[in-house]
Amino acid sequence: MSGRRLVAMTTLLALWATPSFAQQPAILSEAPLTGKAVEFHAVMHPDTVYVGQQANYQVGVFLGDEVRARLRRNPEFVPPEMAGVLGYDLPVTHVVVSAARGGPYEAHVFERAVFPLSAGTHEIPAARLSYSLPLSRSFFSREESFLLRTVPVRLVALAIPSAGRPADYDGAVGSDLEIVLVVDHDAAPRVGDPLLVTARVSGTGNVNLFPRPRLHVSWANAVAGGERVTLDTTRRAIGGVKEFDWILTPLRSGTQSIPVISYSYFEPGRATYLAARTLPETVQVAVGTLAALDSTPGLTEPPLSVRERWRGAVPRPPAQAPVYWLAIALLPLPSVVMRVRRRRPRVRTLPSAILELASLDPFGSVGQSGAPAELRSARGLRALFLRSVAERLSIPSLPGGDERGFVRALRLEGVSLPVALDAAELLTELDRVAYGDDVDRSPDAMGQLTVWAQAVARSIDLEARRRSGGHASRNPRSLGYIALLVATLGLAVAGASSASASASLAAQASPTPTQAVRSLFAEGVLLYHAGNFPAAHDAFAAAAAREPRSADAWANVGTAAWAEGDSAAAAVGWQRALRLEPSARDVRERLHLLPGEQLAGAAAVPPVSQSFLQWVALLAWATASALALWSVVSGGPLVTAAVGVFLVIAALGGGGAALAAERLAARDLVVVAQGAVLRDQPAIALTPRRPLAAGEVALVRARAGIWTRIQVGSEVGWVERAHLHELRAD
């Protein structure tokens, strides 16, 4: 017994002291030794690998004989923090380096197997080594501390190639992988009783990252069970075994077969894809004492109704027609042109009553003033004053004999009350001098009246509202501007309305006639009513592919997929139909049947179409342009305020249409397919956060190779791109 114990202890010590590595660490030959008392170096071997392939990070401590003899305690080694990789520590190697390498040295090599999780360059920081040496040989001598650092190293991770990738590849990376299926034959399963099935995947590689194989069994319900990992770190190349359990619940009795499981993986050494396969297994299922449960209770219910009438493509938004933007540019043009013309100073080429009144010399002779003799009389001055005021206000005649009417006419044109009363008083005085008896008509009196008339005319000229032109109803040029405004608006409405008609004509002229799409749609309706849901789904999908703007085709794609049991395809069809027809109540109600937030968060669809908002914006812009033209003609604070209100409505309509277009485009939305798992890092078989339900809508945050970072509700993680369907139709 003692001999056996001694042999066992010797074997144990040998395995602990010397790891069973076939080769010496690469750092022993690659470290640049210079003959110093202590050498501290790090290497990455190899420095370029594929994502998921192993690389060895090696740190070597080389101690000379003199330093080793003076050390009172072991040096302290601090490994670096490694981001973006998974690491496993390997046993420490202790060897002696000969004098040919600059020694002799006592070498201690610390190794860590690292597996990059994403493509790119990974920077490995410097490792640290601290040690202390006594200043003398005395036991009580003080010590001097030293700190050494390695040079940072880099690891380049290449993306797994997409060329030649199998359709069932789930991300396994390794060498010489084997898969074995183990069935618990001693359980004697019956219908309704659980049966344990285990798949064992073994080989070289990061076993923790091996994904679960795909098991498809038609005669039983398969539920994924636990996973177990046995890691072997006694070799420099990490390997081991990973076991995957399934619980099968048979639905039918008799001899049943478990098909061959094909496990595709990437062989980094040969840079190619290989596949490991299991042997077929048979299971004898006995008749159960209980009736088998229906695994698809939803199919026993009446199927959802489909849309039976083909309405063609949904018209494109009016803003996609060039005439829409042409109308936006032309509608405010009449008011702008009219305002510019009103602000332009008018050059008077002919003498006018205003100029004649201003040119009179109140106290000069007829020859000096240059005015006719009749203008120096009271009646002539009165007539000239009335004509100058009428000319300034663009009014054919003024009520000269009615003082209150005269004042009212001046006030309506913007003249202040004091000036209007002064003008009425002047007109009364001119009437008295012109037609009264015993009045002073001397040159001095007439000069005073002339000065008074000129002063009142200047005040009216400064305060009157309209300096030129007349009423809009009497100005042919204003009527022309209004006619141009109405014609422009009519052109915009007619042109934007005909955009859909032009698109329809173009579609009829294209190689895909509308009649063929209509026939596919009708065929799908007949197949759906006959209960052939897969064929109906294919027909509706073909119709939607030929006419992507058909809300009816996409709605029926989702309904047929739902009847077929494909929640992901149902989500894609219904979501696209709702984005073409946001007010469709039937589609909104059916989206509530799917898991996740179908109509909330990033997937929310406003119940108003983009076209409606663009029409609102155009009509509000046209109304604002018409009111702006009227404000130029007539003015008034109420009209100006109304222009501002309609401009705000136009801005809200245009902004709402832009936001609706971004929402309806769904450029960053995806639908989760069957078997997707949310992970913390872009690496297969990392500990999954949670499985995703087929049909959930997710928001894309980032893309990296075959991985996509998505947000589902409040959770963010990585999913393989193969398990996602783009929601946008283009």
Verbal overview:
The protein is of the alpha+beta class. Helices cover 38% and strands 24% of the residues. The strands form eight sheets. A five-stranded antiparallel beta sheet has the order 24-23-22-19-25. A four-stranded antiparallel beta sheet has the order 1-3-6-5. It has a four-stranded antiparallel beta sheet with strand order 11-12-14-13, with no helix packed on it.
Q: Low-confidence stretches at least 5 residues in length (pLDDT < 50)?
A: 1-20, 290-300, 346-350, 365-375, 467-476, 499-512
Bulk shape: elongated
Described by strand count, sense and barrel closure, the largest sheet is: 5 strands, antiparallel
- Mean pLDDT value: 79
Please report the distance between the alpha carbons of the first and last residues: 79 Å
Number of helices, where a helix is a run of at least 4 consecutive DSSP H or I residues: 19
Q: Helix/strand/pairing class, anyone?
A: alpha+beta
C-alpha Rg, in Å?
47 Å
Strand order of the largest sheet: 24-23-22-19-25
Strand content is 15-25%
Number of strands: 25
Helix content: 25-40%
